[in-house]
Write a structure and sequence with these properties.
Pfam families: PIG-L, Response_reg. This protein has about 325 residues and is α/β, with parallel strands linked by helices. The protein folds into 2 domains: about 120 residues, Rossmann fold (3-Layer(aba) Sandwich); about 200 residues, 3-Layer(aba) Sandwich (Rossmann fold), CATH 3.40.50.10320. Helix content is about 45%, strand content about 20%. The protein contains 12 helices and 12 strands. The strands form 2 sheets. Strands 8-7-6-9-10-12-11 form a 7-stranded mixed sheet, sandwiched between helices. Strands 2-1-3-4-5 form a 5-stranded parallel sheet. The longest helix is centred in the middle third of the chain and has 22 residues.
């Protein structure tokens, strides 16, 4: 079966655009854009295997598009179609990491060959670099408090985000309400949510918990796991860590996040900048309407103050601290 690549074609010339689409029929799914506003919008998406650009508007040109695409995802390939051979243009295109340059008129055979080559290389790079995240919490809102900003940052980078919550938090509120709140928070993040039915305050680190976490790991195949630290006063949090570290023994990257009940023995050695994602984190936590007014640590000012405190370890940014249990280099 042939691979179908996702290609963005930015081509104001309707006839040339139609010709290129016909050449790539059956080989690529082509989205054809003709105006500058749409060009800028679509260029910043992360889904493309290849972007073909042939624009010279006053507001945006091929070099602008190249910068936008590479900023969104450096693995996406860029192919520029140009009218004239200008040395300064070629040098600038190379500086901005354009992957290919074709001059008009286009040769069908060579053009299609190069398009498929670049799209295949891009797809392989993205697959290799793709991170699959699994954040594990004992109760609803644990993950959002501990690593919500980090998850939002990873989501913005194109990572696949999954949240596993082991209990519905029945000891701290109505489990059905908390379930709906967890679903809303996950939706705000754009994450897949998995919910267990372990009893709140009685989660243990035994085989049942390990096997349940393993079943989710086998399903989502994470490259990175985030969960509670062992240095925590809450017994559910400690048990979740102990079960997760066994269940995730084959996962190459494993990190532990801060909880309101973390002890002074919690000693982070990585400090993740969430300056651009603090609002997203607070919005996710605000989804827990049944909890935020009775849990002082979920108040917006406390969330920001906590992030600000840890900023002393990383240029006074807003920070989520983590313990690295293992990390692939």
């Amino acid at each position: 079966m042939k691979k179908i690549y996702k290609v963005l074609l930015i081509e104001p010339d309707l006839q040339l655009g139609k010709t290129i689409i016909e050449w790539l029929k059956g080989k690529a799914e082509v989205v054809h854009i003709t105006d500058n506003r749409a060009a800028k919008k679509y260029a910043m998406l992360k889904e493309w295997d290849l972007v073909i650009t042939d624009v010279n508007f006053s507001e945006v040109n091929d070099l602008h598009i190249t910068q936008m695409v590479k900023k969104a995802n450096p693995s996406i390939a860029i192919l520029i179609i140009a009218e004239n051979i200008k040395v300064d243009f070629i040098l600038t295109a190379m500086k901005y990491h354009a992957d290919g340059l074709f001059f008009k008129p286009l040769d069908k055979k060579e053009f299609v060959k190069r398009v498929l080559q670049l799209a295949a290389e891009s797809k392989n790079k993205k697959a290799k670099n793709n991170k699959v995240i699994l954040a594990i919490g004992a109760h609803p809102d644990d993950v959002e408090f501990g690593c919500g900003g980090t998850l939002a940052r990873l989501k913005s980078e194109g990572c696949d985000i999954n949240i596993l919550t082991l209990s519905l938090g029945g000891f701290g509120g109505d489990p059905q309400i908390r379930k709906k709140e967890a679903q809303k928070a996950a939706q705000l993040l754009g994450a897949n949510l998995f919910l267990g039915d372990f009893y709140d305050t009685k989660i243990d680190n035994g085989i049942e918990t390990i096997q349940f976490i393993e079943s989710i790991i086998n399903k989502v195949k994470p490259t990175h796991v985030y969960t509670h630290s062992i240095f925590d006063n809450h017994q559910d949090h400690r048990s979740t860590y102990q079960a997760a570290v066994i269940a995730a023994r084959s996962v190459p990257n494993f990190f532990c996040y801060l909880s309101p009940s973390s002890t002074v023995d919690f000693r982070p050695n990585i400090f993740i900048n969430i300056d651009k994602f603090i609002d997203k984190k607070q919005n996710m936590i605000a989804a827990y309407t049944s909890q935020k007014d009775i849990r002082q640590y979920l108040q917006p000012d406390m969330i920001k103050a906590t992030a600000r405190y840890w900023g002393r370890f990383n240029n006074f940014a807003l920070i989520e601290p983590m313990e690295i249990i293992k990390e692939a280099l």
